[in-house]
Backbone:
């Protein structure tokens, strides 16, 4: 629910749902769902474009999920971490985000792939590689079309429109 509220642009509601799920998992001593809730928090910040504090939070989630044996889930946090570091001006190797995306999808998973591809596109755009960014967004749209995961369409459309605006101002 936190992610859906983030997609609607409602940060307060998204954070409230994330806090609720985190507290519920904590009261039950459910370590997996504590980590899942913390991952959702950083994904929410990625959806909302919040970079302040996101890289550190995502790095912590990545480390904890890795230690717990959740490599694929940890990779989700790594993409968000590299995205946030890149957009805040940290000199971070973008290859780490692409390697993480490969880990997310290595088993054929496509869940949230359009979102992660949008973050990769942001990284490419930040590095003035707009052609690569366009390609990643087109790929994200193809995955959404193939899977029916259209929740990401507005997020993708906004990025595509931004690239078009930038192209007309060049």
Residues:
């Amino acid at each position: 629910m936190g992610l859906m509220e983030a997609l609607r642009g409602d940060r307060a509601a998204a954070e409230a749902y994330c806090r609720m799920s985190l507290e519920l998992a904590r009261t039950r001593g459910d370590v997996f769902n504590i980590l899942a809730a913390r991952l959702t928090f950083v994904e929410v910040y990625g959806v909302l474009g919040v970079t302040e504090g996101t890289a550190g939070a995502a790095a912590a989630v990545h480390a904890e999920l890795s230690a717990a044996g959740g490599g694929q889930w940890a990779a989700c946090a790594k993409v968000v971490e590299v995205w946030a570091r890149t957009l805040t001006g940290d000199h971070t190797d973008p290859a780490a985000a692409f390697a993480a995306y490969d880990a997310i999808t290595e088993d054929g998973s496509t869940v949230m792939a359009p979102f992660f591809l949008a973050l990769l596109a942001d990284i490419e755009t930040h590095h003035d590689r707009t052609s690569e960014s366009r390609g990643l967004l087109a790929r994200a749209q193809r995955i959404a079309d193939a899977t029916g995961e259209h929740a990401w369409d507005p997020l993708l459309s906004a990025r595509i429109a931004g690239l078009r605006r930038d192209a007309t101002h060049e």
Remarks:
- Residues 29 and 159 are 39 Å apart (CA to CA).
- The mean pLDDT is 96.
- Residues 11-28 form the longest helix (18 residues).
